[in-house]
Amino acid sequence: MSLEARNMQPRIARLAPFLGSPLFESTLWGHEYTLEGLNPDLRRRIEDGTFKRIVFYGMGCSSVVSDIVKGFFLTHEVPITVDVVNDYDTDWFISKNVLKDPATLIFIVCYSGWSVEPCLFYDRMKALTGNKNLIVLTGGGKIQKLAQEDGGSVIQYKLRHADREYPLYHVQQFFSIFLDLFHKLGITKTAYESELKEAVSYLHTTFDSAYIEKARAIASKLSGSRIAFLATAKWYVQLLKQTTMFFNEIAMVPSHRNLLHEFSHTEVAAYSNPSEKQAIVVFLDSEDDEYTKSKVATLHKLFGDKSIPQNKNIEIVQIDIDQDGFFKKFYTTHFFMVYVAFFLGVQSDVEGRDLISIAAKNPWWSAESISAHPRCVDIPGQLSDDIQKSIELV
Fold first, then answer.
1. pLDDT > 70? residue 3
2. Where do the domains of the chain lie?
3. Which pLDDT tens digit goes with each residue over 349-394?
4. Which InterPro entries is this protein grouped with (predicted)?
5. What SS3 state is found at 228?
6. According to DSSP H, which parts of 266-384 are helical?
7. What CATH fold (topology level) applies to the domain 31-190?
């Protein structure tokens, strides 16, 4: 990048070298995990087609990857039901009978291994099911230690370029790991390697200087705004959570997501005459139906006309998802929005705090832990009392 790293906040400076080729190529690194800790009997039952449903539990970035997998299975008609649970109080997400069903495979996805909620979910599943049909997918940490002590199944991430503070930079690689894993376990017929390679070639061609400048221009237009991301259900599930997280965590711009049609029945009213700058970013797929396209056109008419005084603090931006095939659509849009978030992060120049670590009570992401453990591979299952207290005392 032309901007010098020393002029950026640390999280932005670390993202800068990843932009472009390293991000694109990481979609091909789906082999950076180990199956050594997977119980042989459970592996055999998976390969024999015993399981008809997968339940993913994850928080933060881990839930992003789970949502992508759910959307991918739906769009590719993989014949297995996928549920994503984002709270250890499972009763409001899925019935206990489903969790106890011998045809249900449960994944706890927790990269740090130190998030409290996945550990609580682990304990609940242990009491409910004995964890016979449960796999912990993690970089290590407390949850790996719990599973290993119980003789449970663990699949461990082994990323070669793991960022110490932001696993969000590796979403695309986590997804490729799932694709490779599911193929190895016989859940899918392919790991989609040829499609991924074709998509990477397309990305290299598409992301020229003009395309990157387009991202910078959109970032300038969004500067100073609170942002609402809108899409139909397809991309709401697979794309908008990670996009929102990049804008909240990396650009540190207040952002949220909503289903396009639901927004038009509810939140749109708040844009009547805002006193502070607001932005609406609409993702429109070329395959969306005519009603959806008409609704997006209506939003442009409502908010794009600057001659209307009430629109002075409103920006509306449309992101066209018009590539061929899932992988080109998904990765082109994802990486384009990463660039937009990057440029916004440079502009906003906000110094970060330990808010996520403290609010989530996850000591692994604290400043003290990062200083004491600068690598994010083979995450230890025991941290010092001082690191744990740094979270608990706030």
1. no
2. 31-190, 206-348
3. 888 888 888 899 999 988 889 899 999 999 999 998 877 776 665 5
4. Glu6P/Mann6P_isomerase_C (IPR019490), SIS_dom_sf (IPR046348)
5. strand
6. 290-303, 326-348, 355-359, 367-372
7. Rossmann fold (3.40.50)
